[in-house]
Amino acid sequence: MPKPDERELVPTETMMESKTFHRLEQHSDTAPFRLFFSINPPPNVIHHLSTIQSEVRKVLETGFDPQRAVRWIRPTQFHLTILFLGNVPPAEIVALEKVANEVMASCKELPILTLGGIGSFPAFHRPRVLWVGCRSNPLLQQLQSGFLAAFSKKIPLKENERSYPHITIARFRHLPRRFAERMRILSEKDWFPECVWRVNCISLCEACPDPEGAEYTCLSNFSPEIGADGS
User: Fold this and answer.
1) What are the residue ranges in the chain where pLDDT is below 50?
2) Which of 14, 106, 138, 222 has its CA 20 to 30 A from that of 127?
3) Domain that holds residue 156
4) 3-state DSSP helix/strand/coil percent for the chain, to nearest 5?
5) At 106, which CATH number?
6) CA distances from residue 168 to 7, 24, 80, 121, 171 in whole angstroms, order as listed
7) Domain count, the chain
8) Are 75 and 49 a contacting pair, CB within 8 Å?
9) What pLDDT is stored for residue 22 in this prediction?
10) Cβ(79)–Cβ(197) under 8 Å?
């Protein structure tokens, strides 16, 4: 199997080909890893999100310099965060992977997600983050609650916030004049089709510092223990 790019999140279907957890990148010192658990989309979902992102760009990049105003997330970096851990010493990662295995062992099934609709934080007319949303899903909520309960016993989660499940497609550096008009036009469009996404595994990822914003590297992936009878 080809070696994944160190700066890319490996699509879920590719990660599932190996039952061993494979760390793609090792630190040369004892600097902490900035870690989070996420669901990483497979190629067909990445394509769907890329199409939405392209249509959004056509609307928002009219009348201002997009290089200065917005950073569009590369498709290989799309992900849905399950739990943000923050800074973790390298020596603790193996223990965290063990906890993740235990959480996944208790899962009978993973969610089937439905993506659709555009949203933003903190407000739609003055966004800092633009995202594609995920419809409410009981299994996803259970999964997030399971990870939060397990890891809150191991490390402090001061920065953890539970928010509307989403996949970020853009981050804004500053907002040009009359930008709210662009967002209003975007809100009036109804050409964002839904996409159904069957989740196969959960990934442990690192947020790596970069001048243009964090880049994400997949460290390990975890899937439920499913027997031959499907149970």
Assistant:
1) 1-8, 10-28, 159, 226-231
2) 138
3) 12-16+33-220
4) 30, 30, 40
5) 3.90.1140.10
6) 17, 23, 8, 10, 8
7) 1
8) yes
9) 35
10) no
